[in-house]
Amino acid sequence: MAYSIGILGATGAVGQELIRLLHERNVPMSDLRLLASARSAGKSISYEGRSWVIEEATEASFKDLDLCIFSAGGTQSKAFAQAAVASGCIVVDNSSAFRNDPEVPLVVPEINPEALEAHKGIIANPNCSTAIALMGLYALHQAFGLKRFIASTYQAVSGSGAGGLLELEQQTRAWAKGEALQKEVYPHQIAFNLIPHVDAFLEDGYTREEMKMRNEGRKILGLEDLEVTCTCVRVPVFRAHSISISAEFEGPVSVEAAREAIAGFEGAELVDDPEQGRYPMPLEYSEVVPCGVGRIRRDRVFENGLALWVTGDQIWKGAALNAVQIVELLHDRGLVKR
Questions:
Q1: How confident is the model at residue 169 (pLDDT cuts 50, 70, 90)?
Q2: CB atoms within 10 A of CB 295
Q3: Structural domains for the chain
């Protein structure tokens, strides 16, 4: 069975990767329609010799679609999701609009695929840092029982879309020429700098991005009382996020058993030979399906604790790839009703 699939937000960085991954992974498609705002309507996008004309997204855009991946931000998701569902179209949403909705499954296919069975037309994709962190934590949770964790993220500029990528490149070129560095996307210079500020600050001093790690982690893992402290940092890396994690578990842990658990988990790749200089790095995990996990060691603060390092492609596992994997699961489980 082939499906008529749409992409809302097709002109963005994630939208471009969605087009690529749908084709590279041979998702059964009878038709692909690209939707965006009025200012992009009429433009064309090409991939491997094929071209599509972008259509303006309206409430009527979804009536002939079986599935649509939304990647245009929360405002657009809230504006069009219900209309899409009313038209019989399943929505896989990349924004934060529905992640905390108890009626909407929040899915990482390698972790909680069964959550799809209860979908009511909308399925949420997790935040990029959450998805990548859980690729390192889930197998350990199965082995030892996750209790709480502390995370520090090293988030690439790809998380800010095409504008973030361009700003880092332009600032780097300007710095090399001795020219003034222009800031538009970030509040501070990102080239050769670290910015401990991702998303808006809340009253308690955490950012919304940092709270997503706790709230979404709880929902995906089914751990209502999971304790998480997170600090999110933007770094001058083009693509792929990295996360340093110290986690405490319910039962006794061992490094050897942890490595075995990671090596046997579909969503991760064990890269953990520090004496030989082998550990996951963003350059090696850009445009790579699994996330890399390494630097596994006993944590020196937590009882029954492990420290680890996880790296994954923010645009892929943190967004486009996870969404396409959800579409694949819907197909495999016969959950697309026509």
A1: very high
A2: 15
A3: 3-125+319-332 (3.40.50.720), 129-313 (3.30.360.10)
